[in-house]
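ok here's Phage portal protein, lambda family, seq below lol
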Amino acid sequence: MLFATDTVRIASASRDRKDDCARRLRYYCDEQSQETLKLIARRWSRPEQFRLFSINVVRAITNRRANTYRIQPRRVFSGVDQATMDALYRAMNADAVLKKASRYVKLCKTGLLQVGFNDATGTPTLAVITPNVLDVLYTDPENPERVIITHGATRAEDVTYSDWTATGFRHLNYRGVPRRIEGNHGNVNPYGVLPFVPLFDRLPDVQFFLPGGNDLIEAQDAVNVALANLWRSVESQAHGQAWATGISANEVLQFGPDRAIALPQGGQFGFASPNSPIASILSAIEFVLRQTAATHGVGSDVFDLSKVAESGSAKHAGRIELREERLDDIAQWRIAEARLFAVLKAVVNTHRPGTIPDDATIAVDFAELQDSLTEAEQLANTRDKIDLGLWSPADALMALNPDGFPDRAAAMRELQSRRDESAALALPL
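and the structure came out like this:
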């Protein structure tokens, strides 16, 4: 029971850190209105009068920076059938989950991949665990010793916990009392290893949960409040204000193009022009957007809707920082891919013994980022690569349609079919 009580204590002690991460995830998913209202309420007594809308700075910058899996990598397996492993990775939707994981790690700085197994389909599963539900005990942050996952619920009494070690697994209720696990009465971890892969935005030193990223959230808050103030200013000063002198304070004039206004001697009537600082507010918003984008290395033009066409050299220069960051990310994710394969091997072989040999290995080839090219430029590049012997027509077809032709054999069959078809059409009737 001491172990179970300790689980709840550990999970409760990290509530502030988890709340901060949950806020980041809400911002990423466009759930920002309530936070903006709280900020406005600090200075205005009726914040509900403000019209709220936002530009999602958090998601735009996070997605631009998390480009490691923008193009699917190529995985080559040794010591095991390539088709078998390709099928396993497709079954757990690895590329989509890893792209999601790369974005969440950019946002939250730390995370986990969890490998499971679906007994109904006989295939492995892959999920991203974010720090808002995660606690980790460790000596070396890259090799966790214990993982605790909080499964949230609307009611406090429905909250549960999963507590993992290399040898044990417990499912606990909100009080920390172990729950019965069908088929595992001894609360044993059947895999012999933690079925998790640690993920980091940068190489960790002594901390598992890496700091950083608050500036992006603060910039989002500043933009949201400024946009609310902008619209408030537009609504309140969109039209001129009528004024008159020489009449009583409570007298209401009826005026319009079909009416004549009678004022006492010396009285005056007119419209005061609006004096809304719209230009200044827009300038401030644009400054925050550009500086935030530039600070995060994505280029200050990421929010520029008036951007004109750029030359190839300009695009290349604008991506230098992203390319450098991508190299660092690839080094991290190459390690994560190797660890994922090791955990996958343990999980799959537990449920389907002998599927992946113990000496099987993986090599991952991450694709290079390509500048945006016109169709004519792409065709010219393809011809040059074929002429130089760097590509064959099969490579060209795979690059043109990677989903339709995921491997060389499929591309070769399609090319042969087209060649036979062309030869048949060339025959005389």
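fwiw The first helix runs from residue 2 to 13. kinda neat tbh
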